Amino acid sequence: MTAPHYRKAIPGLLADEFFLAGLDDMTGEQRLEPQALAAGLAAAVLGELVLTRHMVVEAGALRVADVAVADGLQEKVRLWVRKDRSVVLARDWIMVLVGRDIATLVRHRMLAAGKVVRTSRKRLLRKPLELYVPPSLSTAAAAGVRIAGNLSVPRPLSTPDLLLAGLLRATGRDREILSHCEPGVHEELDRQLRENLCPSAAQLVDHTTEVLVTAAVTPLF
Amino acid sequence: MSTTAAQTLAGQRVSTAGVVFFTASAATPLTVCAAIVTTGLAATGKLGLPLAFVIIAAVLAVFSVGYVAMARRVPNAGAFYTYVSLGLGKPAGVGASWVALLAYNTLQIGLYGAIGTLAPMLNKWFGIDVPWWVLALVAWVVVAVLGTRRIKHSARVLLVLLAAEVAMVLLYSIANLANPAEGGLSVDGFAVGDLLGSALGPLLGLAVLGFVGFEQSAVFSEQASPGAVRRATIICIGGLCALYALSSWSTIQAAGPDTVIGDAQSSPAAILFVLAEKNLGPWAAEVGQVLLVTSVLAALISFHATCARYSFALGRDQVLPAWLGRTTPRTGQPGPASITQSALALVVIIAYAIGGWDPLTEMFYLAGTVGALGVLLLLAATAFATVRFLREHTDEENTGVRRLAPPVAAIAVTAILVLVVAHYALLLGVPEESPLRWGVPIVFAVVAIGGIVYGIVLRRTRPQVYDAIGKGPARTPVGAR
Q1: In a domain, B7, yes or no
Q2: Around Cβ B167, how many Cβ atoms within 10 Å?
Q3: Per-residue pLDDT of chain A (221 residues; tens, 9 = 90+)
Q4: How many helices (H) and strands (E) does chain A have?
Q5: What is this model's ipTM?
Q6: A133 alpha-carbon distance from chain centroid
Q7: Backbone angles phi, psi at A132, to 5 degrees
Q8: What SS3 class is residue A68?
Q9: Which of A88, B205, B439, B440 lies in the 20 to 30 Å Cα band around A193?
Q10: Under DSSP, is residue A26 helix (H, G, I), strand (E, B) or coil?
Q11: Membrane among the record's keywords (chain A) (predicted)?
């Protein structure tokens, strides 16, 4: 068997970074529970459109520009939001994207871009664990290390990193990523989220929190 | 994509049946029919419980009109707490939240006492003598473990158990009615005379205790369609009312109206099973007793979730320490809040085991009646909150019924509360001069006032936190760590 050929990864897609930040950088397992991962990825894909100025969030409602996006997944989501007026609120769209299995769509995009490869790990008496891991597991930790480093100095995070940090905070993953830092980084992140995050992105983080909290406190049947 | 986004969203909604099952399993019908009916007959010495169930169901049905209407407009996590803070002001909301925490924790922890009823059966089947607290600790481990994870699969198990419980209660009732005591069937139990007198308050209070759990339906106000929540609430109240009234009435008929009170006082381990053994054979009583334990276990899990959710909502709003308001990334559950509740329960179980107090009367029944008072207090506050909230938020949907129902419910619930407090000693089953008689209502009053004062202090010292009270997840997540 030949070693898989990896293409050079294109950096900076928010959903991809979110997916990677959720991975355990020792084992490659996804540490976010499926609901949190899916909601975070849905918000991240919407965030990509916000960051490229193809979308704004006004009073909780999504508004999209009528300009095509190069990325296939972003364009797909843009068209969904553009054409379908039956749902307008960001939190509802996050849930719709979760329902349409956004996690799989993001994984496929990452596979196609060569950012991850699919492997499976045998487990005793259980179904094999299917993993999507980056060629080097240190890639998974990269965004977290960058965010933690900047917050520790403290130095302002870039807009994509700040939104990513906001989504990681919403899903509870921030504790793991900032675990080796001084306790003050949490206040610093709070401050930056409050002061530096643009209104659209801030609302996106709020709505993600709301979706996750509602899911967390509702018993499943 | 052939479906619209709205259809995708609707597909993720919880169905009416889902809401009904969850709500009904929180009310634990078999525990009510077996334990509350017996203790109610024994403690009050009156037969009016079936009628009391019907009256309370009617009051709660009226109450639920405003309750469900309000549930649609506000975020849900800390149901009573959120509603009271929006309707009666934020300090009152904090007071309600403290009362809710106390009441639900008392109810939940008290249920561990009822797990001990399994001990005689273990002795009978296997010849082993297990102290009640060992069983309680086993149940505690189950509840603590399930509390920290999403109970998707165990919830299905609980569903089956609930169906079995309801079937068993119906079977008992039919057998009871087929074998009435001498004199045949009568209206004893439903006659107004059975209810009046000093036992009125306690009987109504016990009947409320039977329905505790119905308020959980509002938890789903965002996940289910508004119609589903409304339907589920009505189905639950109606169904539970029919079941309780039938079961308690048939019990009275089978045991005989003249002798049933003496029987209940002499066999606190549930007259229901004594009758079942007589009418159907020993197997029916044994199946029922096993289901009783599973029913208590289901209630433990359900109330544990309620307690954790309250602590979680309060932690998120920073009324309690903020770490309680975090979810665990791996499971998405309010982990810290769940673990705190489990720790509290463990302390109480150990205290009762060391103190050597009786688990059934001094833990289960006492905690149940204490919790019922707290829930009544919350119902009254919420009823007034809905009156004010719905008056200020009128819309085109506000028909005459919706305008009329909340004030009626508020007056009715307050009247029941006054009756219960007036005859609280009888409900607790203690003499009039017992310190518990006024101690428990005073503790609730102190806790409520303490919460209100804390709310006012928050307004002065931490206005940012005060502003966020009752806004739930819609607020900005600043400091939500």
Answers
A1: no
A2: 11
A3: 444 444 443 446 999 999 999 999 888 889 888 888 999 999 999 999 999 999 999 988 999 999 999 899 999 999 999 988 888 889 889 999 998 999 999 999 999 999 999 998 888 888 888 899 998 888 888 999 999 999 999 899 999 999 999 999 988 888 889 999 888 899 999 899 989 999 999 999 989 988 887 777 666 55
A4: 10, 4
A5: 0.70
A6: 15
A7: -115, 105
A8: coil
A9: A88
A10: coil
A11: yes
For residue B358, being part of any structural domain is answered with yes
- Specify the number of domains making up chain B: 1
Per the structure, the complete domain to which residue B89 belongs is given by 13-472
Spell out the CATH class of A14-214.
mainly alpha
DSSP state of A132: E
Positive or negative torsion for Cα A161, A162, A167, A170: positive
Q: Minimal Cα–Cα distance from B156 to chain A, Å?
A: 7
CB-defined contacts A:B, below 8 A: 123
Q: Which of B16, B229, B316, B327 is the best mutation test for A, with the most CBs of A within 10 A?
A: B327
B463 in a structural domain: yes
- Is A35 in the B-facing interface, judged by CB distances under 8 Å? yes
Which stretches does DSSP call E strand in B24-65? none
Please say whether the beta carbons of B329 and A175 come within 8 A.
yes
Chain A environment of B215 (Cβ under 8 Å): none
Q: Do residue A206 and residue B474 have CB atoms under 8 angstroms apart? A: yes
Q: Which residue has the tokens 């009367």?
A: B361
Chain B residues closer than 8 Å to A219 by CB: 22, 151, 155, 219, 302, 305
* Residue B408: CATH number of its domain: 1.20.1740.10
Give A-chain residues touching B476 at CB under 8 angstroms: 194, 202, 206
